[in-house]
Amino acid sequence: MDCCIVSALCFLIPVYLLVHFVCFIFADADFTLLLASLAGHKPAEAKLRGLVVWITGASSGIGEELAYQLARCGSRLILSARREDELNRVKRHCLENSDLEDEHILVLPLDLLERTSHEEKAKTAIQHFGHIDILINNGGRSQRSLCLETNVDVYKTLMELNFLGTVSITKQVLPHMTQRGTGSIVTVSSVVGLAGAPLATGYSASKHALQGFFNSLRSELTDHPKILISTVCPGPVQSQIVKNAFTEELNKPVTTVGNQEHKMPTSRCVRLMLVGIANGVKEMWIAQQPFLLFYYAWQYTPTFAWAVTNLLGRKRVQNFKAGLDADSAYFSKPKTS
Ligand SMILES: NC(=O)c1ccc[n+]([C@@H]2O[C@H](COP(=O)([O-])OP(=O)(O)OC[C@H]3O[C@@H](n4cnc5c(N)ncnc54)[C@H](O)[C@@H]3O)[C@@H](O)[C@H]2O)c1
Q1: What's the predicted TM-score (pTM) here?
Q2: Can you provide one Gene Ontology molecular function annotated for this UniProt record (predicted)?
């Protein structure tokens, strides 16, 4: 009998490990999020239907796609970013591709850097639908510049935009949620909110600041168990982020945007985010391999993580200095045209 159990275990344990390994190789999210996507609530079901969702940075990339997928789920939307014409374009697309009607989507132009306007904007947002169920802090900008060459004003603006702008909007919405006793605040951080990457010293610092802020806030809200504080940490995703990144000087544009096709499709990233929101996931890691491996390495084997960081980091700097997009050609020789 004992012999049978041992034989069975000798067979089952390697099979179990193999299944995990294969799943991991093809995984594009952490295990909690993957489990939620396989066995949890589906975003399009009652979970998100009818909820009022305020999205910042809704005029392009991840925020734009969030608007489209949430509209198809039947959520009512408040769309914010700086450019009203772009927000109206996103609204039109939402209306054409969902059952929503004009009054279900509010376009609310907002600049995250103009903190004095945030109280008024939040009042308008809350009054329009009577309440807000979910705030998605998505708006932000990245960076492509070496620390040695970067003006301190760039660091200041990155912190003002990505960190303080997000904190400011959150502080306007949080009292409303604590009064109601329910709500979700979802913040788009980044893989560089957990780890570090060259050419992104200021961007990474701003995302680390967000991680610290929201991890601490979550632990302050234990008396409000129905308020979800969730952070999303995507790896490279297709969007306008490189085109819009800060460089070494505030108003100097990025010269080489490069091809974004090797990055995770925006629709997949957003799909996983909505699964996470529908299932109350507090931290979401979303990235294709080998980047996902990097998250686990940083968490569990920092020495190995530093070796990988140096390897990929050196390539990033080489690409950048060769005039290529920093993210391109990680695994081949950089070629300049
Ligand atoms: N794309 C990626 O690879 C990636 C990876 C990790 C995290 N992120 C994060 O995802 C979020 C969305 O970025 P994206 O990739 O869609 O890039 P994106 O450039 O396409 O979109 C950024 C959005 O933020 C808005 N925005 C910028 N400055 C603003 C300001 N001052 N006030 C109001 N809105 C402002 C833009 O108008 C745009 O709507 C960002 O927080 C970014 O840091 C992106």
Answers
A1: 0.93
A2: oxidoreductase activity
